[in-house]
Specification:
mainly alpha; Tyrosyl-Transfer RNA Synthetase; 2 domains; Rossmann fold; about 325 residues; elongated
């Protein structure tokens, strides 16, 4: 049976991946690799947009991210896994698209102003940071991907990519499809402190976390702040532990809900049950990670092989782009 279409998606190598990354993106990628022609890029140039002063950690982060992807279940026999900077066509297309992208399109992007405010301690008023969405568009369009799995926060960037496609196709000749979003199915995952699970908040459970560390972190999670004593009834709807039960322990969720509301279960026991489920859930991921972590050279070889195949597809696109532009 033929593939439904071509997908591109990527992640910045800024550190180890956590459960929010897994449920928000990786688990969906694993399911998509049989139905779509998938290109998954570790976008190390994008890491420079906010971390250009810390380049010494990028190579190691790339390798660790590749291992996280493989441990999640991505299969290099069923998808392409590669490092963005190994495919120079990304940079060439980014340059050409930047020539036709109005500055006002980039300045109005909502995530641009939001991140300037959130990362005020960093000097990121650079062209690279402002032009991040153009590089993202190039990442997608260099493979003529028609489908992009994204979270809702990335929708403005994808709409900008479609605007760039329409402008290019109008100025020159129809060359690119307009990529469509495929929203990831899971809501925002709460972290240890109840806020969104995020490395910047330091409230994450890593995919690679050892079982004892997972148990320790779950034991530290914030529960219903109004439940001061074991005998007090709780409210599961305001508890981040219960929110994770609803994802990782669905079969027991109804009983835990009832028991919590009538003080039939304490927070300590509730956390232990969640920790058990998380350890069980992560076990196959850890097993695959141990295999790949033993052989870093094999990981590098895999990335190189993926980049070689990605370059073949990208070269075809760039030949069409140069022809369309008369260059």
């Amino acid at each position: 049976m033929g593939k439904k279409g071509r997908i591109f998606s990527g992640m910045r190598p800024t550190g180890r991946l956590h459960l929010g990354n897994y449920l928000g993106a990786l688990s969906a990628w694993v399911e998509l690799q049989d139905d779509y022609e998938c290109f998954f890029g570790i976008v190390d140039w994008h890491a420079l947009t906010t971390g250009y002063e810390e380049t010494e950690i990028i190579r190691e982060n790339v390798r660790e991210m590749a291992i996280d992807w493989l441990s999640a279940g991505l299969d290099p026999e069923r998808c392409l896994i590669f490092r963005q900077s190994d495919v120079k066509e990304h940079a060439e297309l980014h340059l050409l698209l930047s020539m036709i992208t109005p500055l006002s399109w980039l300045e109005r992007c909502p995530t641009y102003k939001e991140q300037l405010a959130q990362l005020s301690e960093k000097d990121i008023r650079t062209y690279g940071f402002l032009g991040y969405p153009v590089l993202m568009a190039a990442d997608i369009l260099v493979y003529k991907a028609d489908t992009v799995p994204v979270g809702e926060d990335q929708l403005p960037h994808l709409e900008l990519a479609r605007e760039i496609v329409r402008r290019f196709n109008y100025l020159y000749r129809p060359t690119f499809p307009e990529p469509q979003a495929k929203l990831t199915p899971y809501p925002v995952l709460p972290g240890l402190d109840g806020r969104k699970m995020s490395k910047s908040y330091g409230n994450v459970i890593l995919m690679a976390e050892e079982p004892e560390e997972t148990r320790r972190k779950v034991a530290s999670m914030i529960t219903d702040p109004q439940r001061a004593r074991r005998k007090d009834p709780g409210n599961p709807e305001v508890c981040s532990v219960f929110a994770l039960h609803k994802i990782f322990n669905l079969e027991e969720t109804e009983g835990i809900d009832v028991d919590c509301r009538r003080a039939g279960i304490g927070c300590v026991d509730c956390k232990k049950r969640l920790a058990d489920k998380l350890v069980e859930y992560l076990a196959p991921i850890h097993e695959r990670r141990r295999i790949w972590a033993k052989d870093p050279d094999a990981v590098e070889d895999l990335l190189a092989a993926g980049a070689a195949k990605a370059r073949e597809a990208a070269a075809v696109t760039m030949a069409e782009v140069r022809h369309a532009m008369g260059m």
